[in-house]
Task: structure prediction
Amino acid sequence: MIIYFIATSRQPFSNCAHDENLALDICEGIRPKMNELEVPECYVDLMKKCWNSNPDNRPKATEIAELIHLFHESYVPNSHLLTEEKNQQHYDIEKQFKKAEEYKESNTILLEERRQSPTHPQAVYTSQLLFSYTIDLPKYSECLECEI
Result:
């Protein structure tokens, strides 16, 4: 969700109540909607991996750090230190970021309107215990397979 916020400048699920229904929906696979044109493909891929319902399939923190470092490196002009394969990878990533930036620049009004849309009164973005939401989840779903 952090990468989602960084990439879109929007809070996830801001248009709905943050309650047991949302927790259940997330367990059943619902994810925040995004316009993939405004986010580099490499970010979208990383977000989707982090959102995998099976925790064993999510990237480890070290993998995420390496990918973010790679994204950052793509803007550093050290091409003389890179192999041809790495150079191509950096070029592809840089191209994805530029494409997303171009989209954002040509759609600033639309994106600003989306960012300023009202937040649901029961949307919560401060730390809190989820126990009050998750304690009743088993009664809603007998085959709840994801871990919260």
